[in-house]
Design goal:
globular, Rossmann fold, 8-stranded mixed sheet, alpha/beta, binds 5-O-phosphono-beta-D-ribofuranosylamine, 6 helices, about 220 residues
Length: about 220
């Protein structure tokens, strides 16, 4: 697959250094069949769906699971005709019970792997062990810096000059699994939480599709 992030197309305000810039194409192979988990707005889910629609990546979203009824991700799936299901965490006694249900739904949907695209719940070994190396996450920091909540706020507080985002495999250690792809985003003098978050999100939308294909390379070789 050719690199689909062309730095020359970027305006100065959305400059970023992305590495790696290309990922396997899987041309002629069956599309990578994925599940997606999302809790909120769903812009990363949408970026993935758009990359698939525009044939930048050879994948298909078999199922979106949301945990917040009526969230943006759900509406985006409805608009695009992508199958979605609600797993409301409030209906479960424990994180483990919730994750057991997630495993069931994704197994039934016969996915090869799962993308956590803004899933705002901590996942347990129940899910991680059922899909070893097949669960990926997008995090708004240059890991291993600023794991956990509010990566952007942590970066601003630390005064770093480069912030960014990371697509990584999920392990039981929070935000510490093997890194697939990262984008470094300059922190401007004028930045506040909102402006920096927006520029980082723009890069998330660029690296999530290629991160998925880099993970899929492992799955298909597996
Ligand atoms: C993203 O910023 C991602 O880094 C974090 O949650 C946010 C989800 O945003 N894990 P969206 O719902 O995809 O718009």
């Amino acid at each position: 697959m050719p690199a689909f992030t062309d730095p020359s197309q970027q305006s100065p305000s959305d400059q970023a250094l992305i590495h790696p810039t290309s990922a396997p194409a899987f041309d002629g192979a069956l599309p990578i069949r994925v599940g997606v988990m999302a809790s909120g707005n769903g812009s990363n889910f949408e970026a993935l769906a758009t990359a698939i629609r525009d044939r930048r990546i050879n994948a298909e979203i078999a199922l979106l699971v949301v945990n917040n009824p009526g969230c943006g991700a759900q509406h985006r799936a409805e608009r695009r005709g992508i199958p979605w299901q609600l797993i409301n965490h409030r209906d479960y006694d424990s994180r483990t019970a919730l994750d057991r249900d997630l495993v069931d739904r994704f197994r039934t949907a016969e996915v090869e792997g799962i993308v956590m695209a803004g899933w705002m719940r901590i996942v347990t070994g129940e899910l991680i062990k059922a899909f070893p190396d097949r669960l990926i996450n997008i995090h708004p920091s240059l890991l291993p810096s600023f794991r956990g909540l509010d990566g952007v706020g942590q970066a601003l507080k630390a005064g770093v000059r480069l912030a960014g985002c990371t697509v990584h495999l999920v392990t039981e250690d929070l935000d510490a699994g093997p890194i697939l792809v990262q984008a470094a985003v300059p922190v401007l003098e004028t930045d506040d939480h909102d402006s920096l978050s927006k520029r980082i999100q723009l890069q998330e939308h660029r690296i999530l599709p290629s991160g998925l294909m880099l993970a899929a390379q492992r799955w298909r070789q597996g």
